[in-house]
Amino acid sequence: MSDATQSREMKSSPASTGSATIRAGEAEHFGKLAADWWDPLGSSAMLHKLNPVRLRFVREAVDVHWGGDVESIRPLSGKTALDVGCGAGLLCEPLARMGADVTGVDAAPENAQAAAMHAEGGGLDIRYLAGEIGAQNIGQFDLVTCMEVLEHVSDKAAFLAELKARLKPDGLMILSTPNRTAASRILLVEGAEAIGMIPRGTHHWDDFVTPEELSELLRNAGLTMSEPAGIAFTPMKGLHLSGDTALNYIVTARAD
């Protein structure tokens, strides 16, 4: 292990300094999936399909926010990035390859450990921390991402306030989450979990957040939300960015 990697390996969180926001049992549920998180055919197969769609949105949002060179392969060079609910690093690693100095936080220690091991194997210098975001004394970041996490949070207002506290005043936040619609209940919960595309017990439909609700939550946290982009699915296109937000959507947010 290199000295740089040793200095940024996974660490346990200090005692919590903020309120617990993750719903009871969530960290344990996702921690059990850590071992095969990077298997594109394993329990996180849907996230592997979703990740390129999210990355396309992230790249476009980064270019717009900082007005960088759209041809650059490292548009986040010189920037710091925080991914909250990072799992085993599916988003952290591309952000690092885009040039960012990346920190990932996950409530499940098993995920943070799996993420650190995978990053080391790929020669990536990423810091991973385990525990609630409210427990992390990590300063502020240019970019804060939080993908497919809000639906697992019990106190959404407190959680978003913690994200806002980690965002630099001129920074960019990007969030994605399922919408609470009849379509998401049928396809994401009753359908995808029933046939094994998503592990059973992953989603609780009542905890899904509509774009209108998220906009209000962000406004109360001192953030302004962009128009949401849908993440839709069709047999021909698979998962793709769309104007249809019925299943899932992704947004940017900026400090007021």
Radius of gyration: 17 Å
Question: For this structure, what is the CATH class?
Answer: Alpha Beta
Q: Kindly state the number of beta strands.
A: 10
CATH topology: Rossmann fold
Strand content: 15-25%
Distance between the termini: 42 Å
Based on secondary structure, the structural category is: alpha/beta
Gross morphology is: globular
What's the rounded overall pLDDT mean? 86
Domain unit count: 1
- Please give the count of helices: 8
Looking at this structure, what is the CATH superfamily? Vaccinia Virus protein VP39
The biggest sheet, with number of strands, parallel, antiparallel or mixed sense and barrel status, is: 10 strands, mixed
Which stretches of 5+ consecutive residues score pLDDT under 50? 1-18
| CATH architecture grouping | 3-Layer(aba) Sandwich
What is the string of helix and strand elements?
HEHHEHEHEEHEHHEEEE
Percent helix: 25-40%
Can you put this structure into words, describing what you see?
- Helix 6 (156-165) links the parallel strand 5 (141-147) and strand 6 (167-178).
- With 256 residues, the chain is an alpha/beta fold.
- The longest helix is centred in the N-terminal third of the chain and has 22 residues, at 45-66.
- Strands 1, 2, 3, 4, 5, 6, 7, 8, 9 and 10 form a 10-stranded mixed sheet that branches.
- The chain is globular, with a radius of gyration of 17 Å.
- The chain is built from 8 helices and 10 strands.
- The model is unreliable at 1-18 (pLDDT under 50).
